[in-house]
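Researcher: I'm preparing a figure for a lab meeting and need a structural model of a single chain. I don't have an experimental structure, so a prediction will have to do for now. The sequence is pasted below. Please return the structure as tokens so I can convert it later.
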Amino acid sequence: MNKKRGRKPRSSQYKFRRQTFPFNQYWIIYYTELYSDNTEKDFAVFIKARSYELAKIILKDRVKEDDRSTKLKAMNGYMLHKDYKNINNQRSLSMADWDSIRSTAFPNLQNVLLKKFIPRPEGYTNRFNKSTAANVKGKGFKKGEENWSRQNRKGIYLSIEDRKGKKWTGAKWVPWDKEEMKHLKNKIIEALILHNNSRSKAAKHIGIGRTSLYKNMLRCESRDWWTKNYPPPKPVPPRVSSEQRSQTQKQVMLQRKIDGKKFFERDEEIEAKRLRSLRLSKAKERDKYRESLVPIIKKALENNNNNRGKAADSLNIKRATFKAWMQRTKAWVDWSKEYPKKAQ
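Model: Understood. Here is the structure written out token by token.
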């Protein structure tokens, strides 16, 4: 009796990697460090975290603390549990093994990442297998007439330009119903208008991928038609770091200096005119501020029977400050004449 073939059951690790636990679990992660000189080394570490994704983040952050130029690749982890068996000798973890895992797992109080170096077998270009020119030869798609598409889809495949007004049925291209094509075209136009002609956002709005959106657009109208009527937004220039921008500015200034450009030259007459204008502007601001103090001083004196000390106290300022205000506003009011001091 033939057994019915079904889907291969997923391992317990598949479920563990997609689960967030209420408390920390111990994970063993195998990974490769890529250094700035393009050399690689393989390691294994124990990480303590509530989920597999968090364990990877913890590992990446800790490695970056030691050297920010180091990149991590080919990360593969497993959760350690009571039924976990060692890959090499297929034995369960003993109490001594668990004690070693707890003492070496990161994070720890010492903030030390204990890494076990795993040497690569001779001839291996990564920790999984070895790849040479002889192994790679013959793999992948071939060019020209030997291309798989040329041999198996000849007469079925259509270029992008020839697909306009046609629909793929799964076996061949057939003429597209005009009403259906018009409906899809209007749907794409509406999505583009809503999202400022952004192709990515329009595709997400419709519920298809960006590549599918481009294909459907070209099946309705030509590329030039879409570019003319619904031009894509200009891409935002990439953000340049302050160090790179500073280095570029230094190079530009150095080149100008080599070309004979003189910097910070000032004409004495223009400089004098600029200073006069600046002083005049400051004087106007000062006079405007002093003039605004006049009604404040008047009201304070009137409410306190011209007593300078009490007027200053009512404004919550020092008496010396109040006298300075009166001194600086003499151009607008003669205080001793209009608001004379009362006899004690």
